Amino acid sequence: MRKILLIPILLFAFIIKAQAQDDAIQRFFSKYMDDDRFSRVYISPKMMQMAGGFLKSNAGTDKDSEDLGVLIQKVKGIRILSSDEVDGMTFYKEAMGTLTKNKYEDLMIVEDKGSSLKFMVREEGGLVKELMMISGEKGDFTLLSMLGSFTYEDLNLLAEKTDIPGMDMYGKGSKGPKGVK
């Protein structure tokens, strides 16, 4: 009888652990949601769907605009938390401490005297489900989380062809599979 009860309990614990990562990022955002030192941006899946639909319908014969419209509709949401009024390295370390490192793979790391920038991805089934950017330096902190279902080529195109916040910094790194040429 104990063995029969143990299996559902272990399954439940595994599900809770898998969901804990999303909760950690959400808790980090929520923790500073009412802090006036931070700017907060949330772009909903519906807004991305509308923007992509607009691009596709107004593309006419422009294949790039139509492709970009399809690509933007793959974005399921963007969350940004930023401040230029805090010690960014302190918040960078706190944000990094909330992540379950084995769920994310590093794409690009830039560390300089007193500043750090990290791009990470969370993959499932060969597709990027989340692109995360965390940067911190004296007087500046930014955390960006973009959810969706992307290939690396999709992310490269988003970096090149859009003004989605944070993608300009992604575009400055190496491109190609896993972000390396």
From TrEMBL:
Species the sequence originates in: Algoriphagus winogradskyi
Keywords for this protein: Signal
Top-rank taxon: Bacteria
InterPro entries assigned: DUF4252 (IPR025348)
Stated name of the protein: DUF4252 domain-containing protein
A Pfam family assignment: DUF4252
Cleavable signal peptide: 1-20
